[in-house]
Amino acid sequence: xxxxxEARFDASFAALSDVTRRGVLQQLGRADASISDxxxxxxxxxxxxxKHVRVLEQAGLVVTEKVGRVRTCTLGRSRLEAEAAxxxxxxxxxxxxxxxxDTVVEELKRKETVDGRKKRR
Amino acid sequence: MDAKREGxxxxxxxxxxxxxxxxxxxVVTRTFNAPARIVFEAWTxxxxxxxxxxxxxxxxxxxxxxxxxxxxxxYRLVFTHPASPEPMAFFGRYDEVTPPSRLVWTxxxxxxxxxxxxxxxxxxxxxxxxxMHDLYPSKDALDAAIASGSTSGVGETxxxxxxxxxSLPESVSR
Lengths: 121, 174
Prior knowledge:
Chain A is built from five helices and three strands. Chain A is mainly α.
């Protein structure tokens, strides 16, 4: 299970290993931008910037949305972060259930003890 | 309801853990201070099961709970929630029922993307460790379940639980 987490951290770190991609994240931290804006800012071809954005998108670091002919990039909540938050909510949901189950189990235990005493008498 | 403790020491609350164990698996664990046969009973008798599977705080009303707990038997739970126009049904089949140590059921409301749930009850140190394991048919199926917020037994209502869960204090664990 540790390996599984690591593989996914690797995807994030790989996305962050490139200086242009880190620059894109900084830029998007200031304001959303289209891919062509980003290509211009970083003196790159549109195709080259699209590739970088795709890597960031796959790591969940950037979210893109196409409106008309323009694809706008926004900082994404990282997928790992979103998933960790979901799993914590899932855990708390089960915690609520299990607390109720505890009550039922304690009741059954008491009942068994009482019945057991009766039988021994 | 009046829960009398009859002079018993207040049991320390055991910790619930949850994690994504692999691309296709979710695992939840908890230990109960009782023998396995008692915990197993609470999972397999409808009148007991319905008391804890749907805690009041969920805001769900259980309309019906049919459980034919034996290998090959089926179950069907129907809920309503104020925010949901239609009742929600959760149903499936028991693939394995081995008292008091193991239960396996399918979650057929999810269609082909439904998980298979395996629950094991393992006695240790006078208590019972419960491990609930959901195996999804593919990584995409589990990713989609996480993205949509739906999980077996909770479905669309998960979103509506957000407010409730956010309002609860952090659990006190040992």
